Amino acid sequence: MGSALDTFCGQSYGAKQYHMLGIHKQRAMLVLLLVSIPLACIWANAGHILVFLGQDPEISAEAGSYGQFMIPSIFAYALLQCHVRFLQTQNNVFPMMLSSGFTTLLHVLICWILVFKSGLGNKGAALANAISYWINVILLAIYVRVSPSCKKTWTGFSKDALHDIPKFLRLAIPSALMVCLEIWSFEMMVLLSGLLPNPKLETSVLSISLNLHSMVYMIPLGFSGATSIRVSNELGAGRPQAARLAVCIALSLVVTEGILVATIMILGRKFWGYRYSTEEMVVRYVAEMMILLSGSHFLDGIQSVLSGIARGCGWQKIGAFANLGAYYLIGIPVGVLLAFGYHAGGKGLWVGIIVALFVQALFLSIITLCTNWEKEANKASDRVYGPMIPVEASPIN
Question: Kindly report the CA angle at 47 between 216 and 41, in degrees rounded to 5?
Answer without folding.
Answer: 90
